[in-house]
Design goal:
single chain; about 375 residues; mainly alpha; three-stranded mixed β-sheet; globular
């Protein structure tokens, strides 16, 4: 969701640069009141039946739900968006600032420590056993949901060989969380970043890594589920599957639809330099899994709480959704408005969970034009 691949930088360069930054700027960036006792941060129940009431102010009844159904971009990027029943999403910079405060506290308290000692302590404070277990349980739930999604596709969508290939790739991916500083030695700067990414190593290992800024600060289970679903989707995205000996015609139909809907330009739908199809696909598939998550975990929620869950799930994408970002190159990602409003907010399954179909006259049009795996590029109805 944050990054799909990363350059490997020399360990000494990244670590020393981070430490130098804090030692030189700490008095300007932080006051003593900024120090956060991060070890005591509570982690929500990984599979809550119904989470306790949050401290965030409650919105007007059904306001978020009505706004989401009318304009999902506005609902999701609403200033001061309230928490959902499990917690809140943290914007990227907020998570990174919090992780940096932990690093500052360690450095300030242990002036004689080596870089290795500082990084080891940083890992122990951020990647606690409780948080590791929470993320792992959600990762395995997402894997199970993704496998079920693939299994549910009829024979006309995938052949038996194609389906088994997809299932095997999803089964192979690992959640790679650091147990010591050496675990992320090749990307030690990730310990304070809000980046989450999937990668295939030179040895063929498929893995997902999570930055300390995100790991420390995001408490919304639905944001975690969508993020993990997006990254797991990369294991079977159109460009990853170029390495397999099958054509996967269903993927061609799907990406053609992305172009027909103006979610991608023709050159962006082809794997290679300048493509955005992998990220668009992962947002598209992640939205299906998120709808299942709200349906599964939110059975006791009010419709407003479900809307807050759906909004917090991708709240962090609003970092780049302002008009000032329109002229910026978003790299391998579609424009944030397309990601939020079209690939995510227009998903018929998600809108059904939020009861948008009964409340907006445009719901049938949205359902009929949303891209899906099907024998036709566009197909009316909600079967995925």
């Amino acid at each position: 969701m944050k990054l799909r691949s990363r350059p490997v930088l020399p360990i000494a360069l990244t670590t020393v640069a981070i430490l130098a930054l804090f030692l030189s700027l700490q008095n300007r960036l932080f006051s003593n009141s900024d120090v956060v006792q991060t070890e005591s941060v509570a982690t929500p129940d990984p599979m809550p039946e119904r989470a306790p009431t949050t401290e965030s102010p409650a919105p007007d009844k059904s306001s978020t739900q009505e706004l989401f159904c009318r304009d999902s971009l506005k609902a999701i990027c609403l200033p001061n968006l309230p928490a959902d029943p499990t917690g809140q999403a943290s914007l990227d910079y907020q998570g990174e600032m919090r992780a940096l405060r932990v690093l500052r506290r360690i450095v300030k308290s242990n002036p004689g420590w080596t870089t290795e000692q500082i990084e080891g302590e940083l890992v122990s404070r951020i990647y606690t056993t409780e948080r590791r277990e929470y993320f792992t349980k959600n990762f395995e739930w997402v894997r199970k949901a993704l496998l079920a999604f693939i299994e549910s596709q009829p024979a006309g969508i995938f052949s038996d060989q194609e389906k088994q290939t997809l299932l095997a790739r999803v089964q192979r991916v690992q959640l790679d969380l650091p147990v010591s500083a050496s675990s992320y030695a090749d990307v030690s700067d990730l310990l304070t970043k809000s980046e989450i990414y999937y990668e295939r190593t030179p040895k063929g290992v498929l893995r997902v890594r999570i930055g300390g800024g995100y790991f420390l600060s995001t408490t919304s289970q639905y944001n975690i589920i969508f993020t993990l679903a997006h990254e797991l989707a990369h294991t079977i995205d159109p460009c990853e599957l170029k390495k397999e000996p099958f054509a996967f015609p269903a993927y061609s139909r799907l990406t053609d639809c992305f172009v027909e809907q103006n979610w991608l330009q023709p050159n962006e739908a082809k794997c290679g330099e300048g493509d955005k199809v992998s990220e668009a696909f992962s947002d598209w598939l992640g939205s299906h899994i998120l709808a299942k998550a709200i349906e599964h975990f939110g059975q006791a929620y009010s419709i407003e709480e479900k809307a807050l869950a759906a909004s917090n799930a991708i709240r962090d994408l609003c970092d780049d959704s302002t008009a000032a970002m329109d002229s910026i190159d978003h790299g391998p990602y579609p424009h944030p408005e397309i990601r939020i409003r079209d690939l995510y907010g227009s998903n018929p399954s998600l809108r059904n969970v939020l009861e948008c179909r009964a409340r907006t006259s445009s719901s049938m049009e949205t359902a009929s034009s949303y891209c899906r795996f099907s024998l036709d590029s566009l197909r009316q109805g909600d079967s995925q």
